[in-house]
Amino acid sequence: MFKAPRGAADVLPSEQRYWRYIESNAVAQCSLYGYHRIDTPIFEDAGLFVRTIGQGTDIVEKETYTFQDRGESLLTLRPEGTAPVCRAYIEHGMHNQPQPVKLYYFSSIFRYERPQSGRYREHHQFGYEAIGEADPALDAEVIDMAWQLYGSLGLTGLSLVLNSIGCRECRPRYLETLKRYYSEHLPQVCPDCRVRYEKNPLRLLDCKQESCQPVAGAAPRTADYLCAECSNHFASLQKYLGALGIALQVNHRLVRGLDYYTRTVFEVQPQEEGAQSTIGGGGRYDGLIQELGGQPTPAVGFATGIERIVLNLKRQNVEPPRTPSPSVFIASLGEAARSESVGIAGALRKSGIGALQGLGGKSLKAQLRQADAWGASFTIILGDDELRQGVVLIRDMKGGEQRSVPKDKLVAELGQLKMA
Ligand code: HAM
């Protein structure tokens, strides 16, 4: 027996209403904030992600699905959505369009992680990128859109965690200070942190190991080493978020797991603790487009995991609207009535009324049970007597009343009745 691969899941029909609810709310926000949809390939040249996410990151070192195709190109299943969008921005000369170019996507994302609740090897993101503008008001707008999306879905109790990790000018000085500090504490930290110390010192700050907490907690703070421009940017962003009425917590240890960020980094977290609980995250990446061979182009964006939103909707008992089921069920008895029922079902659907038929020659009782299970608003009953008289019976499934209607008036009659 085959099963879905470890860390990948089917989205069954019963779950779809959560997904459609999230998608329709997200699309509505995108139209309010002026974003347009982009779809990029599921795989890219492997080098794209090494160059942007960073050589020393967990994603690139341990989590990518990289393979050689039959033409010997080295490809990677997309482990995030920002780099592909930036590649597309450059490839299609989008710098010639009015800036910022605002793009959103719904993408499947692949990371070879240890599967657990809320963490998968294939997950799905709704993400958006605003490319070509450095104004901190755009950072605030990007954060606001995420905030409004979660609010529109009915999620509560979320916190916005914010930090600034500086830019190419000021970060080297900070990293030097951080390394100097850690050099005195190396015997106290975990083996992973000793590797981070060499390869990716910024990530020392978000180590989750208990033993590393005192050292990381007392480490020098990025915010104290920002250059004047980064410092002003961070102050303005906080002011704008205040103007939007969004409460925030500055967390000096928030650095995020991708190397391309500059200045603003942020995450949205539910009350539940734990790294795999972060519901969405993003930040500014002013150097990424240039790193990929484009003009120097500032940009900022965000992505949220759909599975994690579903998890939180369920935890908070938020019920998305149910997709309406076909509204009319046609029960028929006997072959002559069956043939009539096929024609009626076709006519109803053509006039925009959803219709299902009882199949397999079941008894009337069994067909009515089926109609109930489908959630039909009305059942049409067709037997030999009705055929002879040129009528059909319409049964209101809520109240149970039945009445007879001339066959040729059925479509018009049903069109007027209120469907559930
Ligand atoms: P990220 O924080 O790696 O950022 O992922 C964004 C969101 O995807 C997370 O907050 C989480 O909800 C979800 N997620 C990540 N990994 C998993 C997983 N293994 N299973 C389930 N859900 C997961 C990015 O990917 C950046 N590209 C975001 C961004 C856009 N930054 C700027 N623009």
CATH architecture of the largest domain: 2-Layer Sandwich
For the largest sheet, list the strands in their spatial order.
1-5-6-11-10-9-7-8
Described by the principal axes of the CA atoms, the overall outline is elongated
Highest-level CATH class of the largest domain: Alpha Beta
* Secondary structural class: alpha+beta
CA-based gyration radius: 28 Å
Ligands (ions, cofactors included): histidyl-adenosine monophosphate
Number of helices: 15
- State the fourth-level CATH superfamily of the largest domain: Bira Bifunctional Protein, Domain 2
Indicate how many domains the architecture comprises.
2
Q: Roughly what percent helix?
A: 25-40%
What is the tally of beta strands?
A: 16
Which strand-content bin applies to the residues? 15-25%
Distance between the termini: 40 Å
Average the pLDDT over all residues and give the rounded result. Answer: 94
Provide the CATH topology of the largest domain.
BirA Bifunctional Protein, domain 2
Low-confidence stretches: none
Largest sheet: 8 strands, mixed
